[in-house]
Design a protein that fits this description.
Rossmann fold; six-stranded parallel β-sheet; alpha/beta; single chain; 18 helices
Length: 373
């Protein structure tokens, strides 16, 4: 079978690569072409038609500034697909680009499946009409998405969340706590992991508040997770405060920490799957937050709470994000055994809801069987 994959973001590239790895065990004659990044390139052995570095545009302004590049990307991908003649076009997340490609594929008689749903259940629900009309089948990675799509008359599969396998694979390569301490010149005190975000705006708004919390816990060592792709000066306050900063070790940091101060996003789910008790932090611009409250229809901002449909994790949002509130929550995580125990029990429930190990293999099996028919 011939598979063309469109992934435009790092997380999609990782999950698509794991799916391809599983597909190759089922389909010995599988041939791949794609847009994406280094993970897909490594597993397929071919170069991307467009690397995701040239596709990762975020936000309205960024899209407008790069509209010419985006149009050229569309044209190049369309030409590549027509030349490749795939049995299936697999779209991975990245909805602004991929939903337009779904319409084009449908008009050109190309079967199109979708892996990792856009968050249509949270906002832009009108996108469901495009998906229903042009996508053959949706493979979702959050349990509540299955019922959502089924209620809209869509063909939907829920193989589970591939992050479980991804983190378990990484965990096998983690160093011991002592080795982690030594290679990062840490003191040996219990670690509190701090994830201030992977974007400049997140760090600008939250880092100072998180640093202010440090002095309240002299018996613990706060270790900040940095993003090597960002400008080093963003982390200057960490260095100025004599605090520890590590790069490209975020999951290992979570594994060795006893509590976490975690920005909202996928990292809250990663922390939960690695068993790290946490407090969730979120702060955006006042105008953006006001607009978002009107557009986004969700009860919680963290994935564990959304999946469990209850406030397992404390979410400190906007004006509630203060060093005092972070400190109060850390104290509860460290000192109140029942509070910590209930959170860890919630994590176990989360594992079950996310389908357990083998999500990529199940997704690959269903996709291969669907295409074979």
């Amino acid at each position: 079978m011939k598979y063309y994959i469109i992934s435009g973001e790092l997380s999609g590239d990782i999950h698509a690569a794991n799916l391809v790895r599983a597909l190759k065990t089922l389909d010995a004659n599988a041939v791949f072409a794609f847009t994406g990044g280094d993970h897909l390139e490594a597993v397929t052995g071919v170069q991307p038609d467009i690397h995701l570095r040239k596709m990762a545009f975020m936000g309205f302004v960024d899209v407008l500034k790069n509209i010419s590049t985006i149009r050229k990307n569309f044209d190049k991908v369309k030409a590549s697909i027509l030349a490749f003649k795939p049995d299936v076009l697999l779209l991975v997340d990245y909805p602004g680009f991929n939903l337009r490609m779904a319409k084009w594929a449908f008009e050109n008689g190309i079967m199109c499946d979708y892996y990792i749903s856009p968050t249509v259940w949270a906002w832009k629900e009108n996108r469901i009409e495009t998906i229903r009309k042009y996508v053959n089948r949706m493979m979702v990675i959050l349990p509540f998405e299955e019922a959502f799509y089924a209620s809209k008359g869509m063909k939907v599969w829920y193989p589970g969340h591939p992050l479980i396998d991804e983190l378990e694979h990484k965990r096998q390569g983690f160093s011991t706590r002592e080795q982690f301490m030594q290679k990062n010149s840490l003191s040996g005190k219990p670690i509190i992991a701090v994830l201030p975000g992977s974007r400049k705006q997140e760090i600008d708004r939250m880092l100072a508040i998180m640093i202010e919390t440090v002095k309240k816990f002299p018996d613990h060592e706060f270790v900040f997770a940095g993003n090597a792709a960002l400008a080093p000066e963003l982390y200057a306050p960490v260095k100025a405060g004599g605090l520890q900063l590590v790069f490209d070790q975020t999951h290992e940091l979570m594994w060795h920490a006893c509590a976490g101060v975690i920005k909202s996003g996928t990292s809250t789910l990663e922390s939960a799957l690695l068993g790290l008790p946490q407090v969730v932090c979120y702060k955006s611009g006042a105008l953006s937050f006001a607009i978002g409250k009107r557009l986004v229809k969700v009860k919680y901002i963290s994935l564990p709470n959304l999946i469990l449909d209850r406030p397992l994790l404390k979410e400190l949002i906007q004006k509630d994000l203060t060093s005092e509130n972070i400190a109060s929550e850390i104290n509860k995580l460290l000192q109140e055994s029942n509070y910590r125990k209930e959170m860890l029990q919630g994590y176990a429930e989360l594992h079950l809801k996310l389908g357990g190990p083998g999500a990529s293999a199940r997704a690959a099996k269903w996709l291969w069987e669907d295409v074979s028919k």
